[in-house]
Predict the 3D structure of the following.
Amino acid sequence: MATLPKKAEEFIDWYLAVVEAAGLSDKRYPVKGMNVWTPYGFRARRNLDRVMIREIEATGAEAVEFPTLIPETEFAKEKEHIKGFDAQVYWVTRGGSSPLDVNLVLRPTSETAMYPIFALWVRSHQDLPLNVYQIVNTFRYETKTTRPFVRVREIHFFEEHTCQVDEAAATGRVASNLAAFGRMATAFGLPFVAVRRPEWDKFAGAYYSIALDIPLGGARTLQIGSVHHYRENFARPYGIRYEASDGTTRYVHQTTFGLSERLLGAILAVHGDDRGAVFPTAIAPFEVVVVPIPAARAGDRPQQVAAEIARRLTAAGRRVHLDDGPERPGAKYYRWEVRGVPLRLEIGAREAEAGEAAAVDRLGQRAVLPLATLEAAVDRTLEAFDRALAERAAASFRSAFSLASDLADLAASTTVRQVGWCGAEACGHRIETAIDGALLGVPEGTPPVDGGSPAACIACGTTDGLRWALAGRPL
Amino acid sequence: MATLPKKAEEFIDWYLAVVEAAGLSDKRYPVKGMNVWTPYGFRARRNLDRVMIREIEATGAEAVEFPTLIPETEFAKEKEHIKGFDAQVYWVTRGGSSPLDVNLVLRPTSETAMYPIFALWVRSHQDLPLNVYQIVNTFRYETKTTRPFVRVREIHFFEEHTCQVDEAAATGRVASNLAAFGRMATAFGLPFVAVRRPEWDKFAGAYYSIALDIPLGGARTLQIGSVHHYRENFARPYGIRYEASDGTTRYVHQTTFGLSERLLGAILAVHGDDRGAVFPTAIAPFEVVVVPIPAARAGDRPQQVAAEIARRLTAAGRRVHLDDGPERPGAKYYRWEVRGVPLRLEIGAREAEAGEAAAVDRLGQRAVLPLATLEAAVDRTLEAFDRALAERAAASFRSAFSLASDLADLAASTTVRQVGWCGAEACGHRIETAIDGALLGVPEGTPPVDGGSPAACIACGTTDGLRWALAGRPL
């Protein structure tokens, strides 16, 4: 039971210690940055996937799976794209003991795997929109320091790819994706900002990129996903055309929407505290842990009652763990606290006698729940827990941004900064130098700080073409 | 609407045509043997996975996921294993533009990925049994002709790996796996035979291998899975040891259980007919298709009733497709028949008026179902369909094996053959030569043909150490 570092003081060390203490990932695998999903971590991942699948399928997308390996010939067709990824892909060059005729790339993302096939699938306007997604692993030969979930070399990845009749329809799909992500983020209790990335930081091959960023304390940010509008940039080299209702042949307009296991990292980073992980109910590997006191006396009333409670809550659809091993209760409480379980139910002789369970949620709220109506009481308790957790995250989010009106002011930033920007690239780079980070881009919709209209570009002082932009230090 | 080849006459052509006509897999991807899971095929796969997960988790196994890439150094530790796989693995040799320090193998199976980590996870007898599984893709550089689902280079794979306290416990896990597979096969309506493979055909590194084989007509068979007992064969090179309750240090005994997308191929091959795919309800991408007649007149009663039926059955948990497009009903019937949907509900003006649905199952059974109690009627209809489908497969299975008592008799085999065998490898090879196929091995439990005890070895005529064995021509 080593003490965790303090989140507020040593954020990165705290994060690494929480992932390890919660038993979510094993990074002792003998390839750096390729980690093992433990049973506990895999449960969280499965729940994360379930939410993603639910929300994306609600928008009419269908699941598919394309191969992991992409021939070099296809990979190289879109010139910006290959330039963007060339340095960070793994190459398969041999099958058995023979060199391959055409080298194969381990997909870093699947545009170049999917689009030759989309060209076969899309023939007429009746085939559109084509909205498909896959949840697969992708691979990047990272040269930066790797971190579980946040920067890894094998990435658990969600990617939607769509073909639309025209630019307006593609813009509509971008909006639909942002709305779907909003619903996911609500399930995770995770406030975020959608930011249109500057030209020099958009996805390789995109017309524009909207990133989903979260603040992590100080000026730190983490990109947890993105939505891209490709216009015809990929449709032209891959020949994805259709016959319109007027008989003309046109290129489709494409979009993509990407998320990854980073979401799990973000959930840990945002909700976790100095006592370990804190999972929102939707993601929690176990929603409820039941602990009989004293432990491991089979036939005792507390033991019997605890087992019955676990059975009932499981039947009600809850993910429940009955911890009836021989350890002392304190050790169990510590374990499930570090592991972030939303609700613990303790059953002692007194509770068993009174027909009650002593409930403690992961934020420390205590209550006594009647066994007679336990399922409903657990529903209410977990709803209140999720609400409190989301409110804590929302309060932290609100204080994570502040205005800045002077470049000199940026260096000492202790939040993400909202600045006036004229839109010029040169000014953008001056802002990046000043904060020693990145111009994240222009927020979609209402910016996080209510500062009225910007007065001038923080870099050049012009009052023309002004917009709010965010600047921070991406992890 | 091209006619399919006849299953009884041109089995392989028929199989390939059904996969294509049903729209389950797209093999136009530009790497041979790496196919695209279409939306329809992916739905079948998801249902297949659901059954596998349900049955394996019922035996206490937990899901994990290990990395796709295995360092050459780990891969080479178990000598038989590397010899078995060396010629058929893909090698990653470059990251970006640099050669890797250690080449990486794309996993053909995950023993050598998992076992170095198992050595860290298993410390004491309290950590045992360790029963974990993963559903991932594996890769084999196949040199034989590839076939969708049956022989591919990227394989959708299920693999359970366990560590047990001793050989007896490992033998028990083998039995538990065989029972779990029996439950899966029941859900798929798929009769199979479990066969202990001969020494010369066991898994690379195994103590023994039990294969799950199905007959495919003629003497053809298809291995759809396997369960292996490893004894300490991997535990020793990978150092997987534990402290027993008596304080001694021992090696674990290991088992594995493997299944793959071949199961989907087997389901298609066994249940399909000259009119296309036939899916058992548990696997069907859609369980029910609802067709209003005439089509595409919004506001018509048949259209309204069909939509309401689709809504109700979906709410009852059924996977339903409402086909209310502009095509004529015949084209829709043809499409969903080829695609193997178990039940079609037709709603014309007469049915809408009478409060009924005309039901036709994929085996041609017709019935009229009352809309008032439709959910229950559909339940009963699908249960009857699954039963009839399983019975048809069982009848076909019973006639797929016959006794043979003379080597000369084997060449002209029109079934899988059950033969007396003395157990000697030389005799095994003579049987294989005679049938121009393989000695599949010795059936576990009751052999498929009730032939009493074997009289003599079909190859050498001895009456010592006799057992029944099966011989056939694996696909």
In short: The two ends of chain B are 29 Å apart (CA to CA). Chain B has three domains: 11-271, 288-381, 401-474. The mean pLDDT of chain B is 96. Chain B touches chain A through 51 residues (CB under 8 Å).
